[in-house]
Every structure is written in C-alpha cells, then in structure tokens.
Design brief:
Blueprint: E1 15-19, E2 22-27, E3 32-34, E4 39-46, E5 52-58, E6 67-68, E7 71-73, H1 80-92, E8 94-109, E9 113-127, E10 135-142, H2 152-163
Parallel strand pairs: 4-9
Antiparallel strand pairs: 1-2, 2-3, 4-7, 5-6, 5-10, 8-9
Bound molecules: zinc ion.
C-alpha cells in the first residue's frame, strides 16, 4: 500500500479495507474507496551521429551520481510525447522530436512504488548539450561501453532497443 493517509473529501484518517482479493484505502465516513494508480514516467533514447547513447548523471536522489536515460514523470496537461521532449530539454539542453516508441511496461520501483514506463526514441533537432535539471553531467556513450544504469527500467529499454534481448 502507498502513503495515502487522509480522506481528501472529509479529512478523516483512511483505513485499509479488503474488497475481494484486493486491499484499498477506504473512508468509513464517506463510504468511499480511495484508489491509487501507477505513476506514469517517460524515458528518451537518443543517439548522436556516432551512434552513441545520450545519458545524464543524476544530481538528486534516488540513485544520485549514477547515469540514466533522460526522463521523468508526466505532468498534468501534457501528453506522453511532450513529457519526453520536455524532460530531454530540461536535463540535457537538447531539443528533440519523437522518432518512435521503444517499449512500455509496468514496473515496481523501490522509491516510487508502482510505475508505468514509456520509452521513446527521439532525434536531436538542436539546442546545446549541457547538464540541466536533476543532472550533474551529460554525455554520449558507445553502446558497448555504457556505464551501469540507475534504473532497471532504463536498462530494459536499452537492451530492447539496441541489443534485442
Ligand atoms: Zn471521507
């Protein structure tokens, strides 16, 4: 279960209650189930002209100091594709365009709970490579010499796209 504690309608403390095989947060006063949903996250897979993969070194927890794909959470009011391109630009300074879907899947994260991951191929249109939000470094890496990636989901996307495992 997640961290939801209080009813957003009446403020009462929620309880965990079984409904069939599932357990949900429940407000006994409002007689209302408070559903929890996976968080949607995106990642961008971007190659340069030398066929090197764009990675960012994280400057924040979780996994501070390790490399990962540019990415983050989808915000209210933007599409999946807009989130990919926004995160790409915020973290790396590069403007891109969507070039295709790599994969999408569910994942349970130690840090964020249930996630939905959407991996997209993107092409660079312009901008200037520089470490931005949440990144202390950005760089391009040869596909046969990638550093360990911070997240299993990113590893899975990279393997699917470049190693066809
Ligand atoms: Zn309530």
């Amino acid at each position: 279960m997640g961290v939801k504690e209080f009813c957003s309608y009446c403020g009462l403390r929620l309880i965990e209650k079984s409904f069939g095989k599932r357990v949900h947060w429940y407000c006994p006063k409002c007689d209302r189930i408070h559903y929890e949903n996976p968080l949607p996250a995106v990642a961008a897979l971007v190659l340069n002209q030398k066929n090197q993969l764009l990675l960012v070194k994280r400057s924040v927890e979780p996994a501070k100091g390790t490399w990962c794909l540019p990415g983050g959470f989808i915000e209210i009011g933007e599409s999946i594709e807009e989130a990919v391109l926004r995160e790409l630009e915020e973290e790396t300074g590069l403007k891109g365009e969507i070039a295709g879907v790599v994969d999408f899947f569910s994942q349970r994260s130690r840090h964020y709970g249930a996630l939905l991951i959407f991996g997209y191929r993107a092409k660079i249109l312009g901008g200037e490579l520089k470490a931005g939000d949440d990144a202390q470094e950005v760089g391009f890496f040869d596909l046969d010499a990638l550093p360990p990636l911070a997240f299993l989901s990113h590893q899975r996307l990279v393997e699917k796209e470049y190693y066809k495992k």
